[in-house]
Amino acid sequence: MTSSDVSSASQPQKGLNPKITSLPTTIFEVMTKLSIAHNSVNLGQGFPDDEGPESMKKIAGDALVDFHNQYPPLMGIPELRQAVARHSEKFQGIPVDWATETLVTVGATEAIASVFLGLLSAGDEVIMFDPMYDSYTTMASLANATVRPVRLRLPDFSVPLDELEAAFTPRTKFILINTPHNPSGKLFTRAELETIAHLCQKHDVLAVCDEVYEHLVFGGGEHVSLRSLPGMMDRTLRMGSAGKTFSFTSWKVGWVTGPARLIAAAAKAHQFIVFTVPSSLQRAVAYGLDNEHQFYTTLGESLSRKKELLESGLKKLGVPTLPGNGAYFLIADVSRFLKPGETDVDFCQRLTVEGGVTLIPTSGFYVGPNPPRHLVRFCYCKDDSKIKAALERLEKYLPTQ
After folding, report:
1. Is it the case that residue 4 has pLDDT exceeding 60?
2. What is the rounded CA–CA span in Å between residue 357 and residue 375?
3. 3-state class of 322 per DSSP?
4. pLDDT confidence bin for 87, thresholds 50/70/90
5. pLDDT-based confidence at 45, cuts 50/70/90?
6. pTM
7. 306 φ, ψ to 5°?
8. How far apart are CA 380 and CA 300, in angstroms?
């Protein structure tokens, strides 16, 4: 027996969790690696170039010295939970009991995990709008629940109300609403949300609202929280993010607010996933929510200018864009630039390698069959110089197609 035979025989043969091991590498990771390899201008990855208030950085640093560095409370430090409650009432008119109706999480991604694991049982169904952030479906799968996607209608990503109502069944546990929406930048209208509220009450269904981009609204748009509508206070959870609100994505501080019964269920999952969140960062976010209104209430105005810079440049190049007045994403139609048989994935890879600009193919956000293969996502929360550089490269490359 050779050494290689011995080595092979000694390898453990037990199977691993197929729900995890079968997950594909995300399109974000694929495109980011390709961008780095080809030194492209990356307008794909969704994080801002500009950072948040210096005051918050100082508070986070000082807190490491001025306060103890042991486990903070499972639910979050009182200062941040109280600030989250004040923020909810100030900006959405939704009163929150900080002591029983708030939970601090390791970013909104952990909030999603804790909420899904706390609320869902095997056999439950969750209604989600297609396209969607990829974490939703993975967490539903880990909770042994089934996703029922409802595809938003192009070109404005409107809600198909008849299809939505048909998606409700006796097994529906909750509906997930992400507004402002990733990847489209869509703001769900008040009329759409009122219909969703009616259906939730009609079918006795809960609602989970991913509102991490709540302050990233512009162009005359309005962010309306489903929880603010009549009849929805006791059946809705809202998720927020300091990473999006303050442009500190590495901090990974998020929160959930909602009725005490639902928060308690999410907290049970939270305690066995991470247990708690770094207290120094919590103190800085608490300060920011109460004292840095000027920063996060003007984010929309700043992003509106960047969107106009990108959109006007794309228009000159003959690249149509789809409407959206929220978050920091812009969907473009690249149909006329596709080669025969080419998909949005192929196009984005070719554009990175040959044109020096990285985007995200929108089909990667779809769960249902036969997604659109002609749309790409731009992320414009970048320095103006980077947006201009991308437009210059596109101008040189696209006309050659």
Report:
1. no
2. 15
3. coil
4. very high
5. confident
6. 0.93
7. -70, -40
8. 12
Percent of residues, the chain, with pLDDT higher than 90: 91
Phi/psi of residue 174, nearest 5 degrees: -150, 165
Task: Give CA–CA dist 4/7, Å, rounded.
Answer: 5
Buried-exposed string 248-278: b where 16+ CB fall within 10 A, e elsewhere: bbebbbbbbbbbeebbebbbebbeeebebbb
Reading the block at residue 39, the tokens are 């030194």
Residue 41 tokens read as 């201008």
Give the pair of three-digit tokens for residue 288. Answer: 């920011």
Rg of the chain over all Cα atoms, to the nearest angstrom: 22
Question: Residues 251, 108: contact at Cβ < 8 Å?
Answer: no
Residue 243 has a CB neighbour count (10 Å cut-off) of 22
Spatial distance between the Cα atoms of 240 and 215, rounded to a whole number of angstroms: 10
> 132 φ, ψ to 5°?
-150, 160
Sequence-separated (6 or more) residues with CB below 8 Å from residue 373: 343, 344, 345, 363
CA distance 364 to 383: 25
Mean pLDDT, to the nearest integer, of 368-382?
96
CB atoms within 10 A of CB 373: 18
Beta bridge partners of 241: 254
